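hiii, so i know i said id send this last week but things got crazy w the move. better late than never?? heres the sequnce for the chain we talked about at the cafe, plus the structure i predicted for it. fair warning i was half asleep when i ran it
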Amino acid sequence: MRWHTLLAAAGFICLGVAGCGAPRTTGIAEREKVEAVRLAHIAASNQAAALSEAAHLVGLVNVPGDVVPVPHALGLFAHNPPELAVASQPAAQVVHYWRVTMSSSDVYTWLSGHPPRGLQVTQPASSAPGTEGDEYDATVPHPPQTNPSYAMLPDAALVVEVEPLGAGSSEIRAAAGAAWFNPSPMPDNSKGRRLIVSLAGGCPADDRGVVGVSNPRAGLVTSLLPPAEKPSRALLCLFSWHSRLLRRVLLPGTAASQLATALSSAPIQQTDVPLQSYGCPAQLPPVPNTVVVFGYPGSADVATWLQPMCNGMTSNGFVMTATPNSAGRLIQRYEAGLPVGARLRADLGGRSVPGR
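okay and structure toks below
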């Protein structure tokens, strides 16, 4: 009788607490859904602001009085898109065209004498043979791109070019681009075979046809790894160019935390930056695919899929990001069996573990 009373009391307490008895993943999924909507609104607002700024820059362009606006390129410009080096690629762009009854040299001379209001020429610009033009950099009022590899590029740029059309006529093109920041994560949605890897299960025998990993754990939609947790160890599975397991390396807590920090340093936002953003140093040659599984005390393991370093990507089955070179260097040191601190030397003996 006492046992039944305790059960009833426990049931009453559970009903009296919000969310008690519901799966923990349900609350996480709802929060992720709300966050996704919030980020999408921010992205749309930033893109609209960038388009508005690009249109404003094009509106600053001065053209001769007898020009005729045209809806599209008439000559070489049709095969040579404008080159706009701004802090995100592709940038929000606005392009206008005009036709004028003047030679291209006369038009360029006129344009040089009537620059866009309030802007200074930063460099000559020409994206098509036989054309002339100038580029102007500008600062936009909305949040700029934050990728450090693009820190030296302007928030916005305006390129004004002219090309000959023949018979004493020319075409003017004014193209403006403005950077915009998309905070939404880049989705890991490649179709194909996915690996489910855990510390207990060890490394799979091959990665033939694999496009990534799959994680049953919730809370990985807005970050590559759990942001508030520290891994206690990690397992590296290195595959050969022939898709066979080449080597496995078990990392202790210190090395695992170093690698987790390095991987988490890359932004997962859809910054529209090409994969080359992190470059490929000469001392860091490409390596085959690698699976890294992180173990967390009291929580499920988290697997990550690393495509070849140097312009490669890292994913977790939900989101993906460019692989930081710092993570690539650590992994190559670990896989080569090089010692990483006294603790790693003591735990691993400075050598890797051959694959099974």
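btw The CA atoms of residues 61 and 116 lie 5 Å apart. thought thatd interest u
miss u guys!!
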